[in-house]
Amino acid sequence: MSLTTVIPAFVSGVVVAVAFRLIYRNRWYIRYWLFKMTSKRWLNMLRKDSVGYSYDAFVSYSSEDSNFVLEMMTQLEQHQPYYRLCVYERDFEIGNVISECILRSINNSRKSILVLTDHFAKSHWCRWEMNLVQCRLFEQARDDLILVKLGKIKPKYLTPTIKYLMRTRIYIEWGPSTQQQLLFWERLRAALSKPGGTPLLPRTV
Asked: Is 4 part of any domain?
């Protein structure tokens, strides 16, 4: 086999390998943009002229951490100043496409909370949801993301995106002691109290 045949074949193989690697590393963003292009309701979401937000925060979490999220709902919704959370197990409309429910929830919330755990980090769906949150907030020129970390996350589950977020943002970490947990709720309420977007719609408690 001559060099004129081997070299082009080698170069083509390298180009294909690099292309596949780039596609794999950016698969969540590609999936996000494909969803945008194919969603019939996307333009309606962008054109929505809302006078305010329906929720104080959209919560992204693994279903295996639902007990903690239930406690979060109790702490934040049943104690002053009565924040309203959007959680999929309670607030998503039955029968709708989940991706569209997520985007609508982000649009209708002042802030977004990511509950980072091993369960979250190793879940493909949670990582997809995390990228939806990031991309949507970026498009809206908003920096209203709150990171909540429950325990240590195994290095093998730490994706580049999670590493980047934890390296570039201050996160609120749950602790085992009563004092640490009281401080946790205090810090989370303080993060939610900071302005984000336009005022909430009037609420009843």
From this structure: no
How far apart (Å, rounded) are the C-alpha atoms in residues 117 and 114? 9
Crossing angle of helices 3-25 and 27-38, in 10° steps, is: 70
User: Which amino acid belongs to residue 71?
Assistant: E
What pTM was computed for the model?
A: 0.71
Residue 183 sits in a domain whose CATH number is 3.40.50.10140
Task: Look at residue 9 and tell me if it is in a domain.
Answer: no
- Nearest Cα neighbor of 61 from 107, 105, 123, 103 is 123
Tens of pLDDT, residue by residue over 65-92, are 999 999 999 999 999 899 999 998 888 8
Q: Please spell the DSSP secondary structure of 87-147, one letter per residue.
A: -HHHHSPTTS-HHHHHHHHHHTEEEEEEEE-HHHHT-HHHHHHHHHHHHHHHHTT---EEE
Asked whether residue 200 is assigned to any structural domain, the reply reads: no
